[in-house]
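Question: Hello, beginner here. Any chance you could explain the protein record under this note? Any guidance would be welcome.
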Amino acid sequence: MAKKARQRISYVLELPNSSPGGHRLGVNGLAVDRDNAILYSGGRDGIVCAWDVHPDCIAPSPSHSAVVDTSSSHANARPKQTTRFRSQTQAHTHWINDLALAQQHSAVVSASSDLLVKVWRPHGSDAKEPATIGQHADYVKCVATPSQSTNWVASGGLDRKIYLWDLSGAGKRLEIDVSGEEVREKGSVYALAVNHSMLASGGPESVVRLWDPKTGKRITKFVGHTDNIRAILVNSSGDMVMTASSDQTVKVWSVTAGRCMHTLTMHNDSVWSLFAEDPELGVFYSSDRSGLVVKTDVRGTLGDLDDGLSLAVAQEHDGVSKVVACGNSLWTATSRSSINRWQSVDTNADIQLPGGFRPQRASVVSTRSRESTFQSGSPAGSPTPKREIPAKSILRISNTASFPLALSRDGAESVATHTRKGSEIIADPAANVVEPIHHLPEETIEGQFGLVKHRLLNDRRRVLTLDTAGDVVLWDLIKCKPIKSFGKRHLEDVEPEVNTLEAVAPWCSIDTSSGNLTVVLEPFNCFDAEAYADELTLEEPVEFREDQRINLGKWILRYLFANLIDEEIRRDEAHRHKLNEALQKRAAVGRTNPGLSISIPPLPGGFDSQVATPRANGSRFPPATPGFAIGLATPGSPMGPGADFGTPLSPLGRFSSQVSNSNRQSAEQVDYFSDAIHSPDADANKPAQTPAAVAEPRPSEDKAGKTSTENGKENEKEKDKDKEVKSPSTPFGKKFRMNMSFGGKKLGRSASNAVVDKPAVVDERAEESESSSNHEKEFADSFHGVIQKIHNEYEKQLTENPDMVVETRICPSLPNDTPVLKLPKGTKVIIQEETSGGSAELYRGTVESVGADVDIIEQKGPQWLGEVLLLNAIPPKDPVKVSFVLYPWQDTLPAITVADGNNRLNANRMLRVKKILAYVAERIDPPADPENPDPDAMKPEEYLELYCNEQLLPNTMSLATLRAHIWKGGNDIVLHYKANGKKEILFPTAPSPSVTDGGGQRQSQDSPSQSGTAAASGQGQISQAVAATA
């Protein structure tokens, strides 16, 4: 089975005072539905908004046949048309780059940087969420539809592909590879236009390519631009293509002639957008990076576009990424969250131009048909007062076009004209001064404020954000809500006020590119960070072990998918109920029909003798289940070894199983954080880290352990049983395994010693796990695969021991492992899959809806997520350790080193200072009676202090924090310990006995850090987390 692409989990925090109606970041896509008077917008926040436009704004009006004189009483009395919010949908998780309307304006198609092409049908009766109709391997930059009657759309992206997608969801119709001929990477598609007979594309290669949309074959290509092609238009007849480029030009190409016919140079900056309502492109709009919006009219020029008219209609404060027009209005989209509506300018025959342009314009108007569908007749009665188009608002359409030479500052124009020939340069300073016709928009559709900047604090549980309004907010990533607002301040000024002196392993990444706070969890590191439970602020009090730590990734995932876990438990209970019903029926049949069993007494005897071993295995199988086995290996757990076998179908029975599994996880955490006297075996961790078969890794490791300790087995048998119990099993290397205890000795440390044949059972189960490994590989590599494995375990149990009631294997973490979180119901939960160009969305829901979406998540979710949620098992990973050396402060206390001078130690990066002090106290001030320590004795941290770089260290500081903020170096940390005078510590009269193993490893019979055995005083965490290295 091919390995699936890596999948990640993301969750999006709800912004405070969030309400629908407006974008939070810049707008990239616009589309107008004239029939229904609706404007659609797509933003960088991934939202598609629908706006109800006033009918007067999109209907051609006689009053806009020229520029209205704003000083007139008519203009002042005109009512203001307003645009109202209609609806919106969170279509994407990344920027929306383009929008297109299809199927008689009933479908809104969006292209996004989340690699998806989606269709939203806002007019449907059920108003469903946008449906995915296609996916690219990289950002999707553009989408186009040939007409409102077709059932497909075309999309292009940075994966150098053009796809034709079926709007009904039938998938891909056609795929076109547009990789660059010289440089493959330059084949990315930034612009796309299509009609029924031709598809045109362009991008960084600066080449316009024409394709047949039916076959995907290339028709021709146009070479002439010198920079990225950003926008393309194709006329309805398919014989003309218009392109806009970052080289500041708009080119008009003839398909029949196969060359560029005109190069228009009305812009002085990169041209980003083109739009035309006219199917023959006689009137079109263009916008550029400087924010200039231009309307160009080339009707009636008889092919000589130099005689056309270009007007600077509006000037935005930012670059205009998209411009659309309808009737007497046009809308502009910029990097701001607001959308501006401007009054258009009619360029019909009666337009009022300055004197220098009138003769040229008159010749063009005389050839224009008065019956043009885009020309409005003069209204009856008195027309609206109009003012003349300013001369500075008229742009030179091309370098070869006639244009007045000079223009005085007071508006008096010269009738002299000039035509540039060849490479002649015109030195005309006034020509560069452009004054737009409109300085202010008619209306602004206000947006909202989105996040644009963030700072993840040292504890990696809180983050500071800055939004477009300048407000700074502090967030809690675990509780998924804002903590405090600091108002309009600089983010850099607030950070020192709220940051802490901590060093926590990276476990998540923050993304604010969509204007929201998105937390991304990757499987390779989301379980790397822990926080001490006594440092957390919880809504409900929970009793924890001393120095217990909470895995942050597992904690948040447990409650993001809490409803999913509840639903899976209900389904599992129903499934087991059916299995146990069949078992009970078989038992009932056996009781009600005794004659059948008596009639053939010899057969069962012979049969039993043949299958005695399997039935014996089955009878001994229950103690090897995860709950029971870990119960034996976890003394001090709240339940006994057999407590998880209650009433299998009852809630109490299920809870017992969960508690048993919690003990297993607690054992893992005790190994990792707490005293080794509670859990010295690293093998106790293995089942929790191997979700494929939670009961099987233990025996396999036992076998490996026996192999690795074969030479030292006799020595181990001679050792004291207590020391066998306390020997650490963290696999630092082969030489450290020499004193590890495995098999039966591992179980000997349990609170219950009643089961003495446990190792034999474990070995048999190991053999079974090996024999069934091939079958396990057939499970789906998904969340559903975990369900399959659980059900397979049920089937195994019924096969091996058909008389045993099936008990649940689902064991999510309990509140003492992951304290209860009450997350906002609207917190979005997203499952994504990595691709070559980014991440593709597989599922999107909320904390509240994940339970209802269990079927989708089972199919789309990753296997590691199922193991964490249902089996409480995280992927195995070696802990990160920090090396350090210990010296007495100015020789005021006894040294803990031996004659060879090897005092280099290492420990888990999260080990606290007080545990190091406890280790020191064991060496220099051992208790008089280790077997019966004095409960009133002073704790080591009460009379000892630890220093680094002459700085007193807090008892709760971890080694990771110490290295990052105090030591600030890459070598071994140098630590000094000293007494604070509260207790007298005497120098020893003789050095502690020590031996050296065959590999040169220094060992001390009473030193857990050097020999790997736990001291009887109970400071066993050092034995697990601190180990001497050669």
The CA atoms of residues 510 and 1001 lie 44 Å apart. DSSP finds 26 helices and 50 strands in the chain.
